[in-house]
Amino acid sequence: MADLPDSEPVAAASPTVPAAAGAFGLPIGGDSPEDMRIALRRDRLLAALTLLAGVGVALGTPFALKSGAEFFLPTTAALVIGIALIPLLEWFERRGLPSALAAFICVILFVAAANIALAAIVVPATEFFRLLPLRIGRIQHNLAPLLDLYSNLEKYANRTLRQIASTPPRASPTAAVSPPSSILELAATSAPAAIIQVFYGILVAFFFLASWTKLRKRTITGRMSFGGAMATARVIQDVVDDVSAYLGTITAINVLLGLIVAGAFYAIGMPFPLMWGGLVTLLNYIPYFGPVIAALLMAIGGLMTFTDVWMAMVPPAIMIGCHLVEANIVTPLIVGHRLTVSPILILISISFWGWVWGTTGALLAVPLLIIIQTVIGAAGKPDIAGFLFEHGTLVQQRPKGGKRWRNAEPEI
């Protein structure tokens, strides 16, 4: 039997070939080492340009969102509200209602609930704080001990400074206060724009909900592979579940907290208890900052209502006590670890969106953070920097017998 000819030795890929070459479509075998080196440099150049473009977009996006708040704010708010209403929409659709009718009912229910909540807060608040100029005397009477203490400290400081300095300290100039008519004029001129934005947001929410079923189906079936379709469906469902679960749970907790505070205020004789409960419910959507603002407002309300400073501090004390129980016991017990978000990310998100869109942006900060985290967690983080700075790009070696540093090229 004739001997078989020796087979050609299979060229194995060198272990020193960069692992990223195959992932980025670089030739592993068959091409010359110089071609592979050129291809790797080309792809790293493209990755560097992509990274620079991404940094530019990241730096420019906040200013674009801030300058275009008249468009971006109602659009974003409408989409977040629409995502939160998707479970209710699907509940109506499962009972045979058309998508347009189900979306219309969802929007009407939300607008009615929002109007009732705002009427319960805005109308009494306007009447209550209209009495603020008439209650200045009572507030000064309640704060008289603190004002006397401050006056004594100021006199002592001034006397000490006169003894040390050669000339007496100059009185600080008082800043002129703009008349309230300018605020009313500003509100009157901005009201039409606000009404247009609200109407636009309602329309966006309605059309988003009405086309949600077809849009989701088209997005999933438009994928090129079964795995891509399943991944897209999982991301969409995770965003809907997380946002609706967070907003639904937090809304129930905040409403219960507001009702408890309103009942306590009614018991101590605080006027307009439902107004204060509504303020607690609304401001509690803003973590950390909202309860502090609510406590300050309630301190002002207590000073306007009661003649004793200690009794005036009871309303903010009640609010702070209820909030501590809610934040440390009720919310962790109900929400659990599924929707737990890093506190530092919450603070950054509130500061960022509050700077971009004001109070409304602060209210949207946590839902937007949940959406961004869910999408990034499902899609994965791009590793452009890892590809750029791996395999010798930043690793430098000193050549033998030389004093110059050079970038270490990958060996082929």
Describe the structure.
The structure is a single chain. This protein is mostly helical and 412 residues long. It contains 15 helices and 2 strands. Helix 3 crosses helix 7 and helix 5 packs across helix 11. The longest helix has 43 residues. It starts with 19 loop residues before the first helix and ends in a 5-residue tail after the last strand. The N terminus and C terminus are likely disordered.
Summarize the structure.
This protein has 15 helices and two strands. It has helices spanning 20-23, 33-67, 69-94, 99-129, 136-142, 144-164, 180-210, 212-221, 226-268, 273-283, 289-305, 309-312, 314-335, 343-379, 384-388, and strands spanning 396-397, 406-407.
Structural key phrases:
412 residues; mainly alpha; two-stranded antiparallel ribbon; 15 helices; globular
Largest sheet: 2 strands, antiparallel
Query: Helical segment tally?
Result: 15
Helix and strand run: HHHHHHHHHHHHHHHEE
Give the helix/strand class.
mainly alpha
Beta-strand portion reads: under 5%
Low-confidence spans: 1-29, 171-188, 392-412
Number of strands: 2
Question: Strands of the biggest beta sheet: in what spatial order?
Answer: 1-2
Approximate helicity band: over 70%
Q: What value does the Rg take, in angstroms? A: 32 Å
Mean pLDDT: 75
Report the end-to-end length measured between terminal Cα atoms. Answer: 41 Å
Tertiary shape: globular
Record the SSE blueprint.
Layout: H1 20-23, H2 33-67, H3 69-94, H4 99-129, H5 136-142, H6 144-164, H7 180-210, H8 212-221, H9 226-268, H10 273-283, H11 289-305, H12 309-312, H13 314-335, H14 343-379, H15 384-388, E1 396-397, E2 406-407
Antiparallel strand pairs: 1-2
Helix pairs in contact: 2-3, 2-14, 3-4, 3-7, 3-9, 3-14, 4-7, 4-10, 5-11, 8-9, 9-10, 9-13, 9-14, 10-11, 11-13
